[in-house]
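Students often ask why we bother predicting the structure of a whole assembly rather than each chain alone. The short answer is interfaces. A chain on its own may look different once its partners are present, and contacts between molecules only exist in the joint model. In this exercise we take two input lines together and write out one structure for the complete complex. Read the inputs first and try to guess which parts will touch.
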Amino acid sequence: MNLYLPIAEISLNVFVLVGMGAAVGFISGLFGVGGGFLITPLLIFYNIPPAVAVATGANQVIAASFSGALAHYRRGTVDLRLGTVLLIGGLFGSAGGVLLFTLLRRLGQLDLVVSLLYVVFLGGIGGLMLVESAQSMLRSKSQGTGEVRRPGQHSWVHGLPLKMRFHRSKLYVSVLPVLGLGALIGVLAGIMGVGGGFIAVPAMIYLLRVPTSVVIGTSLFQIIFTAAATTILQAATNRTVDVVLAFLLMLGGVIGAQFGTEAGRKLRGDQLRALLALLVLAVGLRLGYQLVVQPQEPFTITLPTGETG
Amino acid sequence: MTGARRKPRGTLRNRRRSALALACLLSLAGPTADAQEGNESFEIGLSTSTISITSDFNGARLVVFGALDNADARLLRQQRYDIVVVLIGPRRPVVVREKERTFGIWINRGSETFESVPGSYALAATRPLADIARKELRERLSLGISDLQLGSVPPPGPSGQPAVDQPRDKGAPQANVSLAERRALAAGKPVVSMQGESSVGAYAEALKRIREAKGLYNQRVGSVQFVSPTLFRADLQLPADLPTGTHTARAYLFRSGVFIRETSEPLYVRKSGFESYIDDIATRYGILYGVGAVLLAIFTGWFGRLVFKRD
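Now the answer. The structure tokens for the assembled complex follow.
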């Protein structure tokens, strides 16, 4: 059954879109990432204009992360205080990201920058996580929970001023790296159409040393607001949010997310991280391959504002 | 003494040059003068004046009917009349970019802006265009995909001649006469080939190639048929992603390779139903639309949680 999407201006199969949403929703529930880093490339592979894919991806992410965050909130694995500080940084970053998005699109370099960012971030984070979780799995074969926390070991982050106590996360750190991380997530949300979970989760684990169980809920909580800000800004400035497309993805997404959250509870922290690392790497490699391989058609047509015409 | 003798010679040379220029002007103006001569009258009508794009729109066929009166019966029998019918989508400025390999990755490097590119172009003709009219005439009429004028450079020289395939009321300056001819007219020189057109040409060609591959530009020979000696019909194929806006259906009449006249009718393409409603809100109330999208997402997330409560 095909449906015409009013903003993407293309007619696509409803079931494929709902299925896509469900698959990504499962992953988002499993790992506590909004799934934006998967949904945006998937939409682009499915012929949706990249600008619409980015903005609509942000909209879809809200539903999945709201659903997931609710589940985590009931279980008490959301650090509202940490999430709010992240959020304050995130809102500023989000505005900057959307401005950058508009500018890059006018220059005709948006697609390149989006792909490069994906390759760099996904490749880098995926690689680091894979190495770390493999080590952790080897180390903790005999004992333990698969947590990152190593007592007595502090990174440079813990030496910064303006410290604040986060009870849920059992943390006492400076707000500066938290705000900075939030802003970075916001910028990426604006340009890449992601909630930023795939950056937030590893950064909270490795830089801030937040327990993995709390990280996922907190990340989801923060993503809701960053993605919401991005959606509204994109709709207002670039008119690229396709609400019909987003709704179809959400529909699949919320269903998938429930099963994902369930499955996530049966896996250990290090196993979960290793799986997420593999997934992140795979998406990064796929996008990197596209940049290097010779395109079938080197020419592209756009309107002067950068919209596909 | 010598100076006095030189003078008349110079005048003679000037006179010769202006005579040459005049001859060029006349030959260029030739086809236009022809266009006024024919007695034939020529009207078209569309099968519909509005096309609505609904959620299941999957392309359409447009039938254009036409009547040809006062035609020379002998020429008609010999099939010396040719008719070309086109549907031209709304013209918009467009940027074409070319990727080049830079440090191992493919990056958009060169770009070319075209000021007035039809969003779609469907053509039906009685015979192959090359048999109907000369290349120069096709260029001047902006007829056929390969001779379609895209307005790559703001037209220099005498503007104010609207393109034949452009709505007259718009009045935007547009390459009606091909650029080379227009420059030549302005300078009073014979037509010479322009340098620098080849690089622009590669972008224009790419644009047409991409739009042809998408079905946005198409042309079919033999899809204009005479139903009776005076009545003809043309079938135009419209793609699924037909651009919205005011399209122009235009018919051209040729007699033995000479352009006689043209006539046109507007065709309105608009989104209808739920889609147009959403599109309208997204355009007019961007922020409100964004807030609505967010609320919808939160509601869907909450509702999904409610329905699939698994803990």
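Check your guess against this: Chain B is about 35% helix and 30% strand.
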